[in-house]
Amino acid sequence: MKSLEDYLIANAKIHPDKIAISCGNRSITYGELAHMSLRRSEGIKEEIDSNANVIRASQSIEFLVEYFATHLCGKAAVPLEQDIPISDYEEIKRQVESATIPADVSDILYTTGTTGKRKGTMLSHDAIIADAENLIDAQGFSHDLNFIIAGPLNHIGSLSKIWPCIMIGATVTVLEGMKDMNLFFETVRNSSEKTATFLVPASIRMLLQFGRSQLESIKDKIDFIETGAAPISQSDMESLCALLPHTRLYNTYASTETGIICTHDYNSDICVAGCLGKVMKNSDLSIDEDGIISCGGRTLMSGYLGDEALTSEVIKDNRVYTQDVGRLDENGRLHLTGRKGDIINVGGFKINPVDVENVAKGYPGIIDCICIPDRHPVLGTAMRLLYESDRDINRKELGLYLMNNLERHKVPQFFSQVQRINRTYNGKLDRKSYLQV
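Above: the chain sequence. Below: its structure as tokens.
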């Protein structure tokens, strides 16, 4: 099989009546999905002259048909967030239409980096197959699985779960985010097959805060939950293990540029924040003397669209060099310890804000938080903890709690309660929006 669509067509022949995708009150079978995708591919050939199809990635059957159809007619799919401003949409479309796209490119996923500039990350058909094989092998995707997707389908976190499901002939249920928690619980409860899902840590925290009893009531129906895209706190990991004792709980290391590299079931092995497990079969990983992680293998991106200079900065000797800092333990498990650009220097101490945030999330009443740099008249730079809560927090008691659970130099000097913590559309803390120093 050379492409994801080869598997789609094969499953349509073997299991034509198996449900492929459910969304809202509508479901389509593998036979119907293959037929609709092949028919739509003919329309795309007539409508689009360029080698790529720029698509608004809605949480819908129609989007997935368009996605598969684009590949079937030999074009690259460029899924963008559904509510992207029209000016940004048109600019990306101009970039795509004027650039040279290698023939083996399947998807171009747009990401933002530390500068905020959008980058078109090119993924080959083989990289997608390799990612899917990694997930099937390491997490146990199976034909009798109903995988629930609630995240945006233009981001690798959720889009990459489509790939193993189509390869293995499983069912995908697409939800419009996690705003309606009752719908998520109802979907799991009513599924005739075993269920699994990918949730960013912010969504897991929301379930733990507001849906704990409902989550516990469906504990025997959830085969596994994967999280990624941002760090999950120690307290949330421990709470999830206690609520779902028989569920596999994976923390995964992946990015658009590297593909899916490592995963770790913290409900059957050590439950330690930042532990992301061992390298998957189609990937490899190394760490230099400064702790910087680089990745190799079949899952890597092909490069950044139209930007050879930036590509050459990131890809060297067929390896992607990340901005992530980590270490390998004695069992070969990756532990992520920070991100190069996020470290806060306070009085000569280099502090990873994630360490502070993980502890603060264990304090009763804190729903979400972020640790940011702030100005200090003596130290020059200090740390401020911004936190979201549904009650009044005694800041002195919060400070004492942090002092008892952190090294003294990691305790923030300032505390502020805010209405909401800024996060990006894919669930990551939006640190750039808070930069002050």
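The chain is about 35% helix and 30% strand.
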